[in-house]
Amino acid sequence: SQQGEEDPQALSIQEGENATMNCSYKTSINNLQWYRQNSGRGLVHLILIRSNEREKHSGRLRVTLDTSKKSSSLLITASRAADTASYFCFLTGAGSYQLTFGKGTKLSVIP
Amino acid sequence: EPEVTQTPSHQVTQMGQEVILRCVPISNHLYFYWYRQILGQKVEFLVSFYNNEISEKSEIFDDQFSVERPDGSNFTLKIRSTKLEDSAMYFCASSEAGAHVDTQYFGPGTRLTVL
């Protein structure tokens, strides 16, 4: 199974602090994506990083990918209360059509 | 900005009944997906659809499930005989290229409650 595992499962920080979430996986990937889900709502795509990329930025988001360690991290800088949500990594398997979400990190940003 | 829409937002049904969940993908997208999320659990892939046929399905997507693109805009998920354990949020998604290379855009979901 390609299952992604995020850690921590839950993270609580003060507004203005940085939040870092990690995703580890088991086998080779084609790309890795991060999604966000507000409670009871749909999933919103944040960023996609391909297996041949090491780092990507989008606004206050920074994603890194280490294929040798089979892990990725999502950094949200200068967090805001509106960033409170669950964050999921999404993996697509190399050479296959495996589509797998991780279990998610629940981020709470306290105003 | 174009978005994926889903109807209904909430469906309540009796065990054993058939339900059809509807999705309107983004108009120029060619790949369509269904996922489900049981309360408190992770999002699980059910099926992907391209060129009017299923391209991939998970072990969850058994004979009681079917998908269809009945016209040029709708994409439906049918559950033939619902079970209590089918209660979940069902998300439709679409992408321009396949999910292994491209971003998927998700709808807001349909909450299915089986009594």
Largest sheet of chain B: 7 strands, mixed
What is the arithmetic mean of pLDDT of chain A?
89
Strand content of chain B: over 45%
Which residues of chain B form runs of ≥5 with pLDDT under 50? Answer: none
Helix vs. strand class of chain A? mainly beta
Derived from helix and strand composition plus strand pairing, the structural class of chain B reads mainly beta
Give a description of the structure.
The complex is a heterodimer of chains A (111) and B (115). With 111 residues, chain A is mainly β. Chain A has no helices and eleven strands. In chain A, a hairpin with a 4-residue loop joins strand 7 (61-66) and strand 8 (71-76). Chain A starts with a strand and ends with a strand. The mean pLDDT of chain A is 89. In chain B, strands 2, 4, 5, 6, 9, 10 and 11 form a seven-stranded mixed sheet that branches. The model of chain B has no long low-confidence stretch (mean pLDDT 92).
List the helices and strands and how they pair.
The complex is a heterodimer of chains A (111) and B (115).
Chain A (H helix, E strand, L loop, with lengths): L4 E3 L2 E5 L4 E6 L4 E9 L5 E8 L4 E4 L2 E6 L4 E6 L8 E9 L5 E3 L3 E6 L1
Parallel strand pairs in A: 2-11
Antiparallel strand pairs in A: 1-3, 3-8, 4-5, 4-9, 6-7, 7-8, 9-10, 9-11
Chain B lengths: L4 E3 L2 E4 L5 E6 L6 E7 L5 E8 L2 E5 L7 E4 L6 E5 L8 E8 L9 E2 L3 E5 L1
Parallel strand pairs in B: 2-11
Antiparallel strand pairs in B: 1-3, 3-8, 4-5, 4-9, 5-6, 7-8, 9-10, 9-11
Top keywords for this entry?
heterodimer; A: 111 residues; mainly beta; six-stranded mixed beta sheet; 0% helix; B: 115 residues; seven-stranded mixed beta sheet; 11 strands
Compact summary:
Chain A contains no helices and eleven strands. Chain A is mainly β and 111 residues long.
